[in-house]
Amino acid sequence: MKPSVVVIGGGTGNFSVLSGLKVHEIDPDLTAVVAMSDSGGSSGRLRDELGQLPPGDIRQCLVALASDAEQGAMLRQLFTHRFSMGEGLEGHSVGNLLLAALTEITGAHDRAIEAASKLLNIRGRVLPVTLTDTHLHAVLSDGRELEEEALIDTRGNEDGAEIDHVFLSPLAYAFPPVLEAIANADLIVLSPGDLYTSLIPNLLAQGVSEAIRSTRARLVYVTNLMTKPGETDGFTAERFVSEVNRYIGHESRIDVVVVNSAEFSERVQQRYLQLGARPVEYDISRMKALVPWVVESDLVAEGIFVRHDPDKLADAVMSLLPKIVQNEASGGTPAAGN
Q1: In this structure, which CATH number among 3.20.20.70, 3.40.50.10680, 3.40.50.150, 3.40.1280.10 belongs to the domain 4-130+175-330?
Q2: What b/e sequence results for 59-78 when a residue is b if at least 16 CB atoms lie within 10 Å of its CB, and e otherwise?
Q3: What is the chain's mean pLDDT, rounded?
């Protein structure tokens, strides 16, 4: 029987995790859970103009899980193609437009995702964390409140005010299949990505954090490679872990943290420093005080931008399954270590 793996997040983080897991030799049963609070770019325009839920992060997960056959490769290109000109079309991706059209045809966002999943012949399934039309809000340390994900995502760090907390308004209720998937999972992976605008919005949907607290599944968190200006300035990996646990509502719910142990070239560090971003550092002794199991691994695919390498990431995550099974069989708790 295939192990059941649920991947929770949004944006490029989910894409990287799913792309690697899809082709891994263990071949897990994959479910992607995706945040629904995006309000910028093509997704935001479709949301405003058509009154639909944002399709962008859903599209990325569908593409990540799409068939590798020749027809699937062409469909992946179609879904990712973005118009560079044209009045009303510039900036839109074809995949977003197709999901919007399928929503009108089927009459429901979840049925549109099912239809797109069949078109792309995906391995696994993609679930919106909520079907509620909701927006992300952030309260800053100076008391100001930012409304909508796009403003939070792009604000930068010029004023020096940290994000105190985020919330959804109106209240969003978890899509029931999401809660079922979490309850039946063997492994839950919290993807890297923008902490407050990609990952945590999933935890804010009513019922999700409660389901994570009560599931039998091991909870794995893959930390970010770089900080983000205006969102996680100066954050260490330990700070990321503490924040995620705070929104789950349990100070030590995360079972395993996967951190990058590879160093970045000076050229890359200088490029990111000019953008106000720094590598996410960690202290292994402090991390082991927060979580029972720490995995240190080279996770980097270094190019113009720093990204998680999908294959390295999949290997690091899936290597946990035999150890988890062994520890559960013996009734023990995983020991911290590599």
Answers
A1: 3.40.50.10680
A2: bbbbbbbbbeeeebeebbee
A3: 91
Measure the CA–CA gap between 271 and 170, rounded to whole angstroms: 39
Task: Please state the pTM of the whole predicted model.
Answer: 0.94
Task: Write out residues in the chain with pLDDT < 70, as ranges.
Answer: 72, 324-338
Residue type, 173: Y
Q: Compute the distance between CA of residue 229 and CA of residue 262 in angstroms, rounded to an integer.
A: 22
pLDDT of residue 330: 59
C-alpha distances out from residue 31 to 22, 189, 215, 252, Å? 11, 10, 15, 24
Residue 91 confidence (pLDDT): 81
Domain ranges of the chain: 4-130+175-330
Tell me how far apart the alpha carbons of residues 8 and 181 are, in angstroms, rounded to a whole number.
11
Q: Give the count of alpha carbons within 13 A of 304, CB side only.
A: 0
What's the per-residue H, E or C state across the chain? Answer: CCCEEEEEECHHHHHHHHHHHHCCCCCCEEEEEECCCCCCHHHHHHHHHHCCCCCHHHHHHHHHHCCCCHHHHHHHHHHHCECCCCCCCCCCEHHHHHHHHHHHHHCCHHHHHHHHHHHHCCCCEEEECECCCCEEEEEECCCCEEECHHHHHCCCCCCCCCEEEEEEECCCEECHHHHHHHHHCCEEEECCCCHHHHHHHHHHCECHHHHHHHCCCEEEEECCCECCCCCCCCCCHHHHHHHHHHHHCCCCCCCEEEEECCCCCHHHHHHHHHCCCCECCCCHHHHHHHCCEEEEECCEEECCCEEECHHHHHHHHHCHHHHHHHHHHHCCCCCCCC
